[in-house]
Amino acid sequence: MSTRAERIRAWLATQTLPASARDVLLGIEPRGDINAFCSVLAQMEKAGTVQAGKVGNRRYYVIGDPPKPKAPRPPGPARTRKPMTGRANRLREFLQQHDRGFTVAELRAAVDPRATSNQVSASLHTLVKQKHAHRAIQGRLACFGRTAALAQAQLAAEVAGERAAAPTPKPVRQAPAPKAKAGPKSRTKRPASSAPKAARTRPAAPPTRDLPRALPSPPPPSPAARAAIDASARTTPRGRPAPVSCGLDGVSERQRQASDRIAADIAAFEAKGGRIQRLGPTQFFTRIGMEAANHVPPRAPRTGTTDLDD
């Protein structure tokens, strides 16, 4: 089955007009992923197998140069593995010199005490992956050796030692027997003491004060006093308001002062030759009332004057 790039190039070769990425998608895989087609077209444009031009914000593609065949790689020297240096090399040499297995803690203490257990474990994992060491695991315990037999023998010894050094299990404590439920508590009376109880003494009441009695009511009036009171009540006139002797009686002092001031101003105005005309009730409203009673239409007002009287 041809690759997607080959199918895109074959489809573009049949087109006479440039096509967008969506046109390519609909022409080859209508249900494909547009992002995958855009990625393939970008790689083909970079390789020169298609040519692209941008119109606005959209790119259009046409067929380009044919793909160039990959040149065969010239034969070179065989790749050799770099010699191991550092912690991994020292661990490999240490395991080759001993005919027994070791734990991670023993290897760390013998080879690189300054390294952490995780660093030593990572170096041993690299050695096991490269077949320079072998590992035996049981649970959380792991042993490493030059051969698998040495690692397995050391693991069996470590497991046996852990079982021998395991502390004896503590005896299981038995649950205490349930206590019998006690009956209702009985109230015990205190034994009566033989000594007589001391009588309680109350505090003395405060001395009482003699309250004065109510004064006696006066005696009723005699018939002679009652007759004198009735005679004085009949002869005494009832109080009446004083007759008004002036038009300003009952007026406040402020109003009286205002009236005096107005009278003085009028007198001064007349002394200077002024004349005051006292008007009575106007005849305008009287005439209107008479015309309304006699059913006479009102006269039209005269123009050019503001006098309402005839």
TrEMBL record:
- Where along the chain is composition biased (Low complexity)? 191-203, 224-234
Q: Where is this region: Disordered?
A: 64-84, 162-251
Q: What is this protein called?
A: Uncharacterized protein
